[in-house]
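Long-time lurker. I teach an intro course on protein structure, and each term I like to show students one example going from raw sequence to a predicted 3D structure in token notation. This year I'd like something fresh instead of my usual example. Would anyone be willing to generate the tokens for the chain below so I can use it in lecture? Attribution to the forum is fine with me.
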Amino acid sequence: MTPERADLEAAARLFRALATPARLHLLCLLEEGPATVSRLVDRSGLSQPLVSQHLRTLRETGLVALTRSGREAVYALADTHVSHIVGDALSHAGEVQTPPA
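-- Reply from a regular --
Happy to contribute to a lecture. Here you go:
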């Protein structure tokens, strides 16, 4: 089965959203459970504006979901597929020793 062009473009958007170590780190932190921006700032060591910017990108690609509790924004992984994608990518990266010549 050959994928549809729209599906290929959606997958490419997904990979672009995962293309920074900071976003992967935020997704790993969210695997532990939902968190506020301030908690993610504390745990990641990134600045608040940078965390917010990365979360916006992850939300726009459907990787994280946002819920509001009063004035507080709480972020969580959108579904278990996100955990599998990140986990598989990290496992694969750990297996790759030297790129082929």
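Some talking points for your students: DSSP finds five helices and three strands in the chain. The longest helix spans residues 80-95.
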